[in-house]
Amino acid sequence: MIRKLFIANRGEIALRVVRAAKKLGIHSVLAVSTADRESMAAKEADQVVVVGPAPARSSYLNGPALVHAAVTTGCDALHPGYGFLSERASFAKLCEDQGILFVGPRSETIEAVGDKLAARRLATTAGIPMVSGTGKVSSTEEALSTAERIGYPVITKASAGGGGRGMRVARNASELRDSFDRSSQEALEAFGDGTLYLERFVERARHIEVQVLGDGHGEVLHFGERDCTLQRRYQKMMEEAPAIALSEGARQRIHAAAIGLLKPLKYRNAGTVEFLFDPDRDEFYFMEVNARIQVEHPVSEMICGVDLIELQLQVAALEKLPLQQSDIRFNGHAVELRILAEDPRRDFQPSPGRLTEWHFDTNSDGRRLDSAMHVGALVPPYYDSMIGKLLVHCNNRDETMRTMLSVVQGARIAGIRSNVELLRFLLAHPDVLKNDVDTRWAERVLMPQFLQAQ
Q: CB-side exposure of 297: number of CA atoms within 13 Å?
């Protein structure tokens, strides 16, 4: 049983964990930077500890300070949320060494799946198909030689992490020569490791991922799949579940592949297995494992009727799953939109400031806003610009999209710039309504048309 939980994160996910802990009778201790002392999560937590100044590197990325705070406040468990240190094996190991239960996979599991090249080897062992790719590529010349072998177009990827860092598509040798060093430097700055590898680029790819939860002893459940194809520069804009682009056969195969990959690792707690899906061939290819809860997990919660944060805490405390696969039933269709404090007309420049208006009509069933924002709240300039996640759940996709458009049309945000106007444009676009998109559609079609319409 977890008595006292340390929360090493901020914003809406910190608030979700605080509320889940309260519901389960667990005392919550929230880590905050000096910029977040007045946050909604800080107001609702049972206890608050200032762990450092506003910059993330001095607070939410300071692993030793976070674990020290957890120890000195008498916590027996730590929830890392998503982002920051949530997928850092060394952070999980630091918790383990101090006798603190890490609400996530074991440190050795994070290490095994966190390195993208190591994860590809695991997928090969599990017999999961992958896009033609390479091992570590050390230089531009080696990249050029390798690309000739696997065929253009290719995409560079960072071995040490995701989120679009180090990812660039090259359609010929000239583009690869121009981009390789920049991609490596970007990966180095983001993850402290500039190692890259190459994959053949699938032109009309969709991004499909499977939500899983393991007990740490070999039992792994899935909560269906999500379609995260609508992205801009590899940053997700809209997520939905289920993925209606999948045939029923592909859906069953992709669920089995996700479980088959993680079962031998005796995977513990929440995770996501990501795949590229080629609709022209009805085939999927392994991409990576995210060894944490993800931003978009609520769409899975809505179609399954579960609280994944509560389940994370229950699995961590009990070391067993409180439900079976047959208990997980899928119902309807859910869509999530990411609300960002960014200006789409100025190349998505961040827009910090104080909210003078914040309104979304979520008072009806099937509507939900996950956010720590309110009128008067300060959006600080130090962190990720996502300030909310808007969700709608209805009987089918058409009804969900109509309802979501209605909610977004009535949304009001003032005091900062946001992406709401772009989301209205996206929801009304014929390609989105027909689900005729791919992972590069937003850059190729949406943004040029949106900016021209202004």
A: 26
Given the residues 16, 292, 338, 440, select the one marked as catalytic. Answer: 292
Distance CA 449, CA 414 (A): 25
Cα–Cα distance, 333 to 398 (Å, whole number): 9
CA–CA distance, 363 with 23 (Å, rounded to integer) = 21
Q: Are 270 and 212 in contact (CB under 8 A)?
A: yes
Do residues 436 and 391 share a domain?
Answer: yes
Q: How confident is the model at residue 187 (pLDDT cuts 50, 70, 90)?
A: confident
Quickly count: other Cβ atoms within 10 Å of residue 309's Cβ: 25
Look up 292 and say whether it is catalytic.
yes
For 299, left (φ over 0), alpha (ψ -120 to 50), or beta? alpha
CB 37 within 8 A of CB 57: no
Tell whether 308 and 411 lie within a shared domain: yes
Is a pLDDT exceeding 80 seen at residue 190? no
Domain interval for residue 381: 206-453
Say whether both 185 and 216 belong to one domain: no
Q: What is the pLDDT of residue 144?
A: 94
Environment class of residue 171 by beta-carbon count within 10 Å: exposed (0-12), middle (13-18) or buried (19+)?
A: exposed
Please check whether residue 114 lies inside any domain of the structure.
no
What's the mean per-residue pLDDT of the chain? 95
Write out pLDDT tens, residues 230-255. Answer: 999 889 999 999 999 999 999 999 99
- Please confirm whether the linkage preceding 153 is cis (ω < 30° from 0): yes
Q: What DSSP letter does each residue of 69-138 carry, written as one string? A: HHHHTT-SEEE--SSTTTT-HHHHHHHHHTTPEESSS-HHHHHHHHSHHHHHHHHHHTT--B-SB-S-B-
* pLDDT confidence of residue 162: 67
How many structural domains are present in the chain? 3
Does 371 map to a domain? Answer: yes
Residue 266, judged by CB atoms within 10 A of its CB (0-12, 13-18, 19+), counts as middle
* Band of pLDDT at residue 163, cut at 50, 70 and 90: low
Domain end position, chosen among 51, 83, 103: 103
Full-model pTM: 0.90
Question: Is residue 115 a part of any domain in this protein?
Answer: no
Taking only the tens place, the pLDDT of each residue in 48-105 is 999 999 999 999 999 999 999 999 999 999 999 999 999 999 999 999 999 999 999 9
Could you tell me the CATH number of the domain that includes residue 96? Answer: 3.40.50.20
| 408 contacts 372 by C-beta, under 8 angstroms | no
Peptide bond into 55 cis (omega under 30): no
Domain boundary among 161, 182, 200: 200
